[in-house]
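Example 3.2
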Amino acid sequence: MPMSKDLELQISTLRKSRWVNLSGLVDCATKRLSKPTCQSIQLLGNGSYNNVYKLVFADGTEIAASVSVHDDEDFNPQAKISEIATMQFVRASNLYSGIPVPQVHAWDITFSNPAGAPYVLMDVVHGRKFNDITNDGNGLRGLDGMSEVRQLAVTKALAMLQSTLSAPVPFDKIGSITLDDEGGFIIGPLFTISQKNLGGPYKSLVDLWRAQLEHDILHALREWSRLETEELSQSLSEPKCTPQKFSELFQLLSSLIPYFVPPSSYVPLVLYHPDLALRNIFFDPIDDTKIAGLIDWGGAQILPLMLTAKFPDDLNSTGDDPCEREGIPDEGWNAVPHDWTSFGDTSKWPSVFRGPDDRVDLTVRASAMIKRYYLRQHFSACFAQENHDRYSDDDLCRAMLFAHAPYYLKFHEIMTGGWTSLVDHAEWIRETYWRLSAVKQDGRSAALIVGPNVYRSSMEKSVFDLNIFEKRSSEDDQDGEEEEEEDMHDNNCR
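Structure, written as tokens:
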């Protein structure tokens, strides 16, 4: 049956990737789901990895069609299958009764279908979204824009959701869920939210981390064996590094691996949702504490409990938002929030203007970041209480999970981030190594590693670094070359 003029008009106005054929998408959905005529199509949402369209058919059925925005060079079909398998696992198992997940009806992970791109057809999730709430009084959005009482209620709901995800899984390997030839659930390679394949599955964290270091060395062998200079970075997006610096950081990280294997209380394998945020959560139309749906399962992983203790994105904060503070460096972590607990000296803050004579009051945003700090404490306590009530979990270590996890999360972020992550966090690696060395010399246990949110100072290292003379000699040579250049310049000017 030919498409109606009204539907053609709707399609012509919708946002899409240039290679996507939305008319073909409608045809695919109609045929694969054996539906009558599609009456309307609209954009439900767009993100970094997918555009989602709502299709309404003549029988009243509503279908969400998720279409990849990646082209065939960047799209990872194995990662997409893992995302689909995870959604099916959550629905099929009896572990996650408090997490409504849309049912997947059909999919195609090729670019040769009539839609011109990989797609997934699933149920539409109904409910309220809180991420776009705006407070007209202060301009803050989402959780930041809510009243304090409502913030507590929503934060508790997020903690209960996290607790539900913390149920031990019936798998014995680290990786991502996928499907076997019979459609059963198994653990396959470990995929990140960006569809990066980290290999595996792995029997232990040590196996995972050693494999990542081996990958870094393979990169060095393939990319750095014919360089004409000592500079390893090959683009502006890569941090400056020399072979010697890479070698130092590589050895330090390798030596730290045994210390960062979490104690036994924190190693049960659980399901990790990498994008737990209000933008992906639907709430009950009436009850702020009841979850109606959780979407965007791309990059979901099976990990030890310790490495899943990341706060929802709406509770995170960074050291440069709204601005950096003197003496409190921004270490630039993705997995661990930067603790804003006070303003400090606001007279040293930068001046930001929306327009002429319209200065932005940065303390409004900073106050919201401080509130997030206390909401994180509320989240942690609610998570522990929910674990106790749901699983009869009386383990005192797990009750402190979110307080104990940061250094393990930082270490894991470095280990899985490639060689550039080693360089970006060089000071943390060095400082952690020397502090742990001092603790070991004192004879204290290294069973659990905790520390400050950021390193504000550096301990005196128990080593005589004779490289300092090479550095001084290099600096003297450079100064001499600059003086010669200045003398030549002066003579030419005369």
